[in-house]
Amino acid sequence: MKLDFGNRVALLPAASGGLGRAAALELAAGGARIALSGRDPDRLEQCVRDLRVAGASDVLAKAGDCTVAADVEALVRDTESRFGRIDILVANSPGTLVKPFEQLTDEDWRIAFDSKLVTQARQARLVWQGMVARGYGRIVFIAGTHGRQPHAQVLTAGVINAGLLSLAKGLAEAGAPHGVLVNAVNPGPTDTDRMRYLVARKASEEGVSTDEARSAFTDDIVLRRFGDPAEIGAAIAFLASDRASFVTGVSFNVDGGQTRTI
């Protein structure tokens, strides 16, 4: 299915790598104008080149940290100055802490909430009024499967992703009268730098091979493999498109069958 984003403007904080980059490439392939940020200038520059090759009609890239309010505010301001509006937001943030419950301090919880839930809520707030005023908008939060299927080893992810799913559901109701559709994507374990780090850490901590560590992450996935970032990006792009014009308030699992609840 070919998605046509025409002259739409898509904002993607933290998109020089990982799932953000994958989503940006899918939007670019449909001809969207892309505004993105990333902390690593070299990766950001390479991503811009890749987006242009993919088909982006125009690209604005700004170095910055998606968890820093001033950086995101500047990105939104520059995007609106350059393109006149923001039609699509792919809300993105770093992964949360992975620690046993008894080791999680109050500060750990605060950091986890700030870095993901507060960060993505801020991104949505900064584009919300403009979308409502224009009568059009698409917001896609990148949450995660543990928001619906909690796991003892990743408690912060479960709690915070559940908050993001609730935020998406509530904003979908608020945005519906104004043509602003809001959804969330729940990626399962995906072959990104973060997942490769988690695999390597597990192998080191447990004294097992990398293959054994990977298997520990994929054993509960029906398809028995990690997802490809492009597979997550395709789902995000669909929800951001006009082909999903009757879809809002949805929590969309892209997890190879990992989530067992209906």
Describe this structure in words.
By secondary structure, the chain is of the alpha/beta class. It folds into 2 domains: 9-188 and 230-251, Rossmann fold (3-Layer(aba) Sandwich); 191-226, no CATH class. Helices cover 48% and strands 15% of the residues. The protein is built from 8 helices and 7 strands. The protein has helices at residues 18-29, 41-54, 69-83, 106-134, 155-175, 193-206, 210-218, 229-240; strands at 9-12, 33-38, 58-63, 88-91, 137-142, 180-187, 251-254. Strands 3-2-1-4-5-6-7 form a 7-stranded parallel beta sheet, with helices on both faces. It is globular and about 55 Å long. The mean pLDDT is 96.
Q: Tally of extended strands?
A: 7
CATH H-level homologous superfamily name of the largest domain? NAD(P)-binding Rossmann-like Domain
Compute the separation of the termini in Å.
26 Å
The number of helical runs is 8
Q: Write the element-wise H/E pattern from the N-terminal end onward.
A: EHEHEHEHEHEHHHE
Strand order, largest beta sheet:
3-2-1-4-5-6-7
Globally, the shape reads globular
**What number of domains?**
2
Estimate the strand proportion: 5-15%
Calculate the mean pLDDT score and round it. 96
